[in-house]
Amino acid sequence: MRLDLFLVPLGLPFVASLRDTRRTPEDANGLILKLNNQAVEALENQQSRAERSGTCTLANATFRKDWALLTTKERTSYIDAVKCLQSKPSKSDPSWAPGTRTRYDDFLAIHIDLTPSIHRTGNFLTWHRYFVWTYERALRDECGYQGTQPYWNWFAHQNDIFQSPVYDGSPSSFGGNGEYVKHAGIFVGREGIPIPAGEGGGCVKDGPFKDMVVNLGPVRPGMRDLPISPTGPLGYNPRCLRRDITSFPMRDMNVENLFNITLGPASHTVSLFQDEFQGRFPDGFIGMHASGHFVAGGDASDVFSSPADPTFFLHHAMVDRVYWIWQSLHPSSAKTIAGTITMGNNPPSRDALVTDLLNMGVNAPSIPLEDAFDTLGDTPFCYIYI
Ligand SMILES: *[C@@H]1O[C@H](CO)[C@@H](O)[C@H](O)[C@H]1NC(C)=O
Ligand SMILES: *[C@@H]1O[C@H](CO)[C@@H](O)[C@H](O)[C@H]1NC(C)=O
Ligand SMILES: [Cu+2]
């Protein structure tokens, strides 16, 4: 497959012209495509100037694609692999996570267990990068999936989220909304930014995950009237997958914000980038990362057990895509980190180190954080986004 077939020729002046005019393009969907092209071009330039080394290069990297651009057959092969993972027996130690039943649960369990040390921390971006990659590898190695991890493009279907091929309820989607259940709304973070209740709230009523059983959680549901798991965070609590899909949080997934974190003032350091990406909850600003979870509502709105919803991995692939774009366009900051080892430094803790290990539990060996900076080169990874 030739990479240049996917690229709109834009040239380096594109970034310069955005900076010069101090004007953001009007359309986030257009901007992300241009940024993606620009990121690939920057990598090509680094490679041709021999600023990059290692075995995985642009010539043999795999491509992660927009779910909307996959064929129906490609989508169903991904969904089949997810359902396969949900049917294979768990490998987790039951004395650690007594609630895990399936290989899918093994991913949910490690995310639940580590939540306080992988969000608003120095390892947030790299831990989630390795997590999504490990899941992609399990789909391929354990369930015969031939494709790559797709992403959910946040900037399409913002006004008609139920038309999104991710949530349209068809057999090649992740299903649509939950059954209507009267509830008091969904609340973001400890600050409790309110998201009005939508038309759902209950069990997902159509699509391939209609009968999915979620075995772990809830731990800290955004839908606060959901009872937390009586058996503890890693205990067995089988139930349906819940959603209350709403485009309300998408007000924070817009072109100004995308521009800000990729090329604008919030792109200048990793600290600004990751903090603006993860929202400023005291200001009522949810930010793109949390907004994507809250669009699905229900189980996805629980910071601990959000991977209960299989769309988690499409959302976090998009988070990783934006991180990858930012790294490619800011090579001098690409391998820097900021932040501590506790969520929002609460309780206060030491700074994260590039030698800290990214722990995947039974899903993959731990690797040092610094091995997850690059998606090419001599890392476990070998992919780019198109
Ligand atoms: C990519 O190509 C390089 C050089 O030809 C090779 O050493 C490496 O193993 C390849 N990597 C993958 C993932 O195919
Ligand atoms: C850009 O990010 C900075 C840093 O977090 C923030 O103060 C500012 O309000 C943001 N600007 C826009 C237009 O969102
Ligand atoms: Cu997470």
From TrEMBL:
Keyword Mitochondrion in annotation: no
A GO term for molecular function: metal ion binding
Domain Tyrosinase copper-binding: 119-136, 309-320
Signal peptide range in chain numbering: 1-17
InterPro entries named among the record's database cross-references: Di-copper_centre_dom_sf, Tyrosinase/Hemocyanin, Tyrosinase_Cu-bd
Pfam short name (any one): Tyrosinase
Domain of life: Eukaryota
Keywords: Metal-binding, Oxidoreductase, Signal
PANTHER family tied to this protein: N-ACETYL-6-HYDROXYTRYPTOPHAN OXIDASE IVOB-RELATED, TYROSINASE FAMILY MEMBER
Entry protein name: Tyrosinase copper-binding domain-containing protein
